[in-house]
Predict the 3D structure of the following.
Amino acid sequence: MNSARFSVGVDFGRTNLRIAAYTQESGLVETILLPTRVSEGRDAVVGDMCGAIQRLRDRYSPQFQLAGIGVGSPGPLELPAGRLRQPPNLPGWDGFELRGTLERTLGTRVLVENDANVAALAECVLGKGKKLGADSLCMLTLGTGVGAGIILRGQIWDGMSGMAGEAGHLNIWTDGVACGCGGHGCLEVYASAAAVRRMADEKIAGGNAPGLAALAKRNPHFSAREVAELAQAGDTDAKTIYELVGRSLGIGLASLVNMLNLPLYVLGGGVASAWELFSPALFEELRHRSYVYRLTIPEVSRAELGADAGLLGACLLPLCAAELGS
Amino acid sequence: MNSARFSVGVDFGRTNLRIAAYTQESGLVETILLPTRVSEGRDAVVGDMCGAIQRLRDRYSPQFQLAGIGVGSPGPLELPAGRLRQPPNLPGWDGFELRGTLERTLGTRVLVENDANVAALAECVLGKGKKLGADSLCMLTLGTGVGAGIILRGQIWDGMSGMAGEAGHLNIWTDGVACGCGGHGCLEVYASAAAVRRMADEKIAGGNAPGLAALAKRNPHFSAREVAELAQAGDTDAKTIYELVGRSLGIGLASLVNMLNLPLYVLGGGVASAWELFSPALFEELRHRSYVYRLTIPEVSRAELGADAGLLGACLLPLCAAELGS
């Protein structure tokens, strides 16, 4: 065994578990992919997770020193306890002691974090943050919902109980569409993949969106991606939807920039790939609504790491944990 | 000289300069009050400030060890440079190197900070934060405008260039009233003393607000305080104004709570004294719009320190500066 260190990281997704061994020299040295057997219950999922962690720990411990184990989990996740709180896509997991259960099973300390936070950490340490020399950023992940993570001076900002970074619930259109959080007009209901689909359905129901109606007829399960393709092909209704995505993101980013004055804001997730469609409206709102933006011109751009951000961030957790404390 | 330390703090206000010597044992041991001679130019103001600092430094240095000099200044203030950037109430000061000028004049290091940030620091170390054992908070100061400061783990969060904490420009009513920042519908245009006056003027101009019209006739220079008195006496129009103040604050706080997940949010400044009038609407919006609030129930309440917060915070700057770096 030499003194080089490795970590084991878990990307706990709703569909797949990805478990990897990581070294600072070589990055991801081995990745195990498993289905997330949510329907078979918590014990099955945790058992799969721990089995894979154990295999990687056994395989790399003879060569490297284990720095720790990190897990990126769907939220809301209460910290430092590592307890799930009413996770919307994991029925039956409310109150589950994810961290404690993993630690008892593995017999060692485990760092557990919200998935949006670990993705932001990876983007800071290995992605756009590294490229620009920025050790603070806010990352918005535009997926089915809108997640976010805040990194301040190289460390995840968790808040008092792990629930910081809920930028998906920033106020955008005060009397707007009802959100799953109980509020109205949140960023998530205007800038997520689900929001794009909802806006398309509304336009189709309005009866004046022939391109979207034809899309729905061809493919009733169409997604934000197909709406983007239609917009790229010049469909006015589809373009209007992405313009509203951009305006909403610009309004939300203006609040973030005014509050946090960070050097870098990155957008990841599937919807971010429609950057050309929504970014003009985004920057128009941002310039209009944030004098801090106009004075400081922080970088606002697409994330670099793509789908690996969550897994890389989980692997980085033990390596960046010096000051995380608990 | 014993080993007890003292600091000198300056509250650089638009009307008055307050300069004080402070010890951890006795608090403010001596305060000098001077008018801020803005009309006589920057040299006059800086000269007054440095003269008073020098007098207090000379007087207390034989007994105590000087920890440093702190100044709370109107913003926007670029940090770490300590340079003013287009300060709205200090014409001719744009680009002024406040920190450098003070350091050259005094021949020593000076810590300069935004006034809303030092008030938040004082509230954390000596006010509500101390009372509740919270080392992180966000303080909104509801004065002529709306300022804010964020304290994270005992330290001011300045952002990349000193402009963090501009909560006065959080998005509240997206297509609302134009704000001095260039945007629309910011918190500041619904929750400041100037906003209360503007809303009263609008109601008077509408012709259906007899109580407010009578107030304006009695006292054309009436302020937010007189509107609050009218509301306390039962005037429906005045009550409606403070209800909108409360709703706007609740919407803004919901965004803050969702993003930052802090244990404590405090409201200071003149408008905060109308707490009973606006807080029911504030909490209604906050509960509605922030599931993080509903899950974590952080404390949201009035600040403790009143008009001394800025001066105390300036004195605390050198004493809390361990990790501030520059």
